[in-house]
Structure formats: C-alpha cells, structure tokens
Amino acid sequence: MSELNKTALKILESGKGILAADESTGTMTKRLNSVNVESSPQNRILFRETLFSSQGMSKFIGGVILYDETIKQKTNDGLSVVELINKMGSIAGIKVDTGAKQLAGSNKEKITEGLDGLRERLGEYYKLGARFTKWRGVYNITKDYPSKLSIHTNAHALARYAALVQECNMVPIVEPEVLMDGDHSAEDCFSKTSTVIKKCFDELILHKVDLKGVILKPNMILAGKDAKLQISNEETAKQTIKCLKNSVPNEVPGIAFLSGGQSEIQATENLNHINKLNDTSFIMSYSYGRALQQSALKHWSKNIKDITGTQKVFDHRAEMCTLAAQGRWSSELENN
Q: 3-335 adopts what CATH topology?
C-alpha cells in the first residue's frame, strides 16, 4: 500500500468525513456578514478554531481543507492551525486553486486557474503540514452546457494539478462540480455528470496520476434547484451510485460528496441513502462546508465567546454526517 493510498484511507476511515473550511476571505466575509459578525482575521480564526478543537473533530472528521490565510494562522494557545488539527487526530489539507474565471471561447462557463507556480506553492504547503489538497472545477447545466471545451479544459487542469500534488507526496482531492443551479432534470444531471467524471479520469490516467492516491469529490445526482420535478432521496442514491459505478475506476479508494447547496438535513439524508444502497468498493463519505458549519455559525454569531455551545452544535452535525456515511442515520436522531 502506497503512502498516498494510506493517507486517503485514513482521511475517510470508519465513516469519518472532511470538513471543508477552505472559504476564501471574500466568501468567509459574506458568511460572517450574513450573521452580523465582523469579518476580521481574529474572528475568522476564532470561529474555525472553535470547530477544530471540538470533541467531534477526533471522532468524526478525518481531514480539514484549509485556505491559504488559515493554514498560516496560530490559535489562541499559540499552536499552528495544522498542529491543532493533527492533535485532534485529523489531517490538514489545503485548497490550491485560485478560483474559477471566465472561460475564453465560452464566456458563460468557467475555467479554474492556479497552475502557474503551483509546484512551488505545494512545497510550501507541505512544509506547513498539509498532506492533501483540493482543486474545484465548476460546470453549468443548460441545453448547451457544459460544452466540450469546458469539459476538456477543466479535466485537463484537474489532471495537471493532481500530478503535481502527488509529485509532492500529497493526496489530491479532484472536485468536478456540476452545479445544482437551473431547472434541469435529474436525468440531465446524470448524463452530464457522467460525461464530466469520465473525462476527468481519462485525463488523470493520461497524466500518470496514481488513482489509488486520489479522492473524488463529486456532486450527487439531483434535479436542478428550480426544476418542477424533484426526485426522491432513494432515487438520488440509486442514480448517484449508478453514475459513479459507470464513471470511476475501481482503484479510487474513496468518494467524498460535496453538499452543493443542499440543506444540512438533505445532504445528510441523501448520503445515508447512498450508503444503504452502496454495493461498490468505494468508501462513500462527505466533504461538506456549509452543510457542516451553518448551524454552528448561527449559534456562534449570537455570542462568539460561547465556545462550548457552538462546539455542541457542530459535533451533533458531524456525528449525523458520519452516521450517514455508515448508512446508520435516521431523522429521529436529529432531535436527540
């Protein structure tokens, strides 16, 4: 078993998931403003440190994706953020793309940037203690999109990124996100997500990426959020598993779903159904941002000194997600 494969499996062992705390300063400012908290570096680290030091971290969270600002910050106890995460038994990761920009030749679509200077940045992040990374490609669904150009260029960028990451002895999370925005059907989501994921793996193989040392972070198969006809949780699970069976090579050790705009409960319930029906060799877990943090953020915003109360809210959500990753969640547990 390679070191990369061991790291990937450790992040997702026993139903543990990934806390996506890699919001950029701009995104974190919007989140804090939405709950009337000033977005200062002190407040940003205070909220994150509250989550990272909670009891639920050691039980339910195998990895934490950080942002450039956060991985370089110190906690109130003087530990580096990475030291705190490691102390809680979790592994630190880092978002390394520099964001999605307009795609030349298809101006309603996006291409993710950040390959320039990436090798050097990865070396710096490894020294800071990161052992896995994340890069997100985004795709719209309409009658005409995603275009072949968008599918090809984003897959190529994800593969070049993944090859550089593995060269630096870190595990790449490959995140091709087909967005929920729009009124498309679940069938459309299935067909376009399948095409996107297959192309990503074609490129990963071409770039000699070790698939045993990769974690895939895909969307679930859902109808667009404005679609008149939504599908059931069970149908979401069936279609998602079918899509991944047909698109993902067996060597990939684990899949950590993004929540993609689903509510906390919806993301948990869908993950639970997926694991109840999972007949693949893949670990099926979670890599959630808002779907792990939103309730904790709302609680914390009422009194940012209420560390224990905020941690209790976060720990509950993390436990629910891990139970879902084991196919053991039920709605009754939400009120216990």
A: TIM Barrel (3.20.20)
